[in-house]
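Translate structure to sequence.
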């Protein structure tokens, strides 16, 4: 049995985790609504760097690998939310929001699987890159600090995903994939704020200093040379 962590000044029941599946969301991407433009200014302000043209070019030259890693990322995101559901079992509202998040991430996972099947792309094993491990090695070891760090790291992973979906949508020579990446922006652009809200709710102190620390770590991982191409990899070498 997991002991419930202490909560800060904001009750968990009041956390603004706005996750919503729309009726038009479908596993079949051909049924998805043409997305409206999403303002990514909060994403750009949150991140410490922007994706380079070098990464975009490498990704566009290796779309099958990017799709495979994208699928892996969606599955991991769903697993992370599911783990939090078991850890924080003291709030109906929080359980409902995390359940919605799991459902949304698994929908995206199924959608990417459908894209891969449609393209005749076989599923292959792809090892994880250095990105998440590079941030997690700075995670504190005591609770609730450890979970607060995990949630902050999750916020950066979600924000970077959104930034890269937008970058790929602008340049990819595949109208179907471009539309899908734009479709993802609406939900993905919310997720980083959801994770930050939960992280703050678990802390008795303001988390801004810790967010700034991981902002620098994440920016270094994204901008420094990287020998492996992944959805969240650094500068290709």
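Result:
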């Amino acid at each position: 049995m997991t002991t419930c962590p202490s909560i800060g000044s904001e009750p968990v029941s009041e956390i603004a985790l706005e996750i919503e599946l729309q009726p038009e969301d479908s596993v079949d991407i051909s049924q998805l609504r043409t997305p409206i433009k999403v303002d990514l200014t909060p994403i750009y302000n949150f991140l410490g760097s922007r994706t380079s043209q070098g990464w975009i070019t490498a990704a566009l030259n290796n779309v099958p690998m990017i799709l495979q890693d994208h699928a892996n990322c969606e599955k991991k995101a769903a697993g992370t939310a599911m783990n939090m559901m078991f850890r924080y079992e003291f709030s109906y509202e929080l359980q409902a929001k995390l359940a919605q998040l799991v459902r949304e991430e698994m929908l995206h996972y199924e959608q990417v699987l459908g894209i891969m099947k449609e393209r005749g792309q076989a599923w292959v094993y792809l090892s994880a890159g250095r990105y998440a491990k590079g941030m997690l090695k700075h995670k504190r070891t005591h609770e609730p600090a450890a979970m607060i760090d995990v949630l902050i790291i999750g916020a950066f992973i979600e924000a970077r995903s959104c930034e890269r979906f937008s970058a790929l949508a602008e340049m990819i020579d595949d109208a179907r994939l471009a539309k899908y990446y734009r479709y993802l922006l609406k939900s993905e652009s919310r997720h980083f704020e959801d994770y930050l809200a939960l992280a703050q709710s678990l802390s008795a102190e303001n988390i801004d200093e810790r967010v700034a620390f991981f902002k620098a770590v994440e920016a270094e991982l994204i901008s420094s040379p990287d020998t492996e191409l992944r959805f969240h990899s650094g500068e290709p070498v």
